[in-house]
Amino acid sequence: MLTIRKVTKSFNARVLFQGADMTVNYGERVALVGPNGAGKSTLFSLILGTDTVDSGEVNRDEWTSLGYLAQEGEPVGEETVLDIATGKAGEMDRLEAILQEHEKRGDVSAPAYFDAQAKHEALQNPQAEARARKILRGFGYKEEDFTRPAREFSGGWVMRAHLARLLVIEPDLLLLDEPTNHLDLLSLLWFRSYLKHYPGAVLMISHDRDFMDEIIEKIYEIDNSKLTQWTGNYSSYLKQKEEAWERTMQAYRNQQKEIEQIQDFIERFRSVASKASQAQSREKQLAKMEKLEKPAPLRKAFRFNFPQPARGGQRMVQLNGIHQAYGTRKIYEDLDLEIERGEKTVLVGPNGAGKSTLIKILAGELPILKGERRLGTNARLGYFSQHRGDTMDPECTVVEELKRCSPELRDDDARAILGSFLFRREEVFKKCKVLSGGEKSRLNLVKFLIDPPNLMLMDEPTTHLDIWGIEGLILALQRYEGTLVFISHDVHFIRSLATRVLHINNGKVTSYSGGYDYYLEKTGATIDNARAAVVAE
Question: Which residues in 257-273 are b (16+ Cβ under 10 Å) and which e?
Fold first, then answer.
């Protein structure tokens, strides 16, 4: 289906790939992994033909249709959500233009022609709209949303509509770049289940470890300009990689020991007449020996110790008789809730159920229509939101801004912490005023961790982090002795932290005093049930 042979590609004098080989077969589930900047998105560009190789070749079967989901969506106008999902919003016109151009040139045997023809036929299928509606429901859209202009939705929701269109077309090979970024938990579970039964092949870039563990059967790792194949899911890849590193390190140690013994023999007997010839022979042996390089340390999640917060009272925050609504739409009615010291509570439920509303009420960020919110004794509250306003000095550098929160932090430690949250090398000297939204979010997160309150409220804290950044955050929060309430769509993150689950639906909050798997067991909320629940709404 897709074959990459001996590909070399450089960017700004930096070699991304050197003699890279890769194969994706029909029906395979493959992930592309590697540190940020390793070249994952560049490899996608080479496959798509939007970039060219320096040497080598990228080939796909001429009958193979290809679909691509980018991280960032296209601007939208008056087209509806259903227009995007069914291809009526520009996609049909684009495909027809490709077909007409190839037919005009008499070039109807080109792969691009077959690709456009297959997608055009899929979108013209009488069942296409019915499939689009079903998939949109799976992604959390309600029936009344289908005819609304896409411009009324956030970028994340528009991306779901574009993803729905890809699934309607059902290309032979799906290229997905961070496909879970814009999904809530139930939509993610639905999508995960859908991909398991997808008839084509899938090649993805993802930071979601649990998602890859459930779907992926082969991994290609980009590291030090090499593309290495590993069989199995992400957890299997990590285990195999560690075992391979141990073997390589042992081989290196054995060779170093042998070299030391040879050198010792040479030094001892070089001047001894009866042994001189043997010493010379050993010198030749040493000169001819192919020296092994010491393997670089495996990348690990960065561990850092931050000051633990002061101990609060048993009840950290309490809600009594809360009524909350947006216009005529009721969110909560007569809600009572207590968050106790030391709990790590995750809020789960369908999109629009009121998770973010509840965390804002707990944080005191949203005026309450009726009822009472009461903070506990010695409670010091901190609220981390993806969308909160800037709380940093625009003229400070990244490292200076971090040290403002913790003046005793040494420069080396500050840079190491920032590095684990994707601020590499000279990036720590960028001024805050030039940071992107994602960079500001990450910096705010680091500031939050090195000066933590004893009641921490976090809304999707893993957004903008790679896998190792997420692992570092998990390690930090596992050692955190305060109280945590959070929203996340990352199942691995939830499983690693949650000691209590609050399920929110139709204004009702149900508490499960156990981890995420305990919640699934008690509710029977398997992936298939979660999928059915989302589609039914």
Answer: eeeeebeebbeebeeee
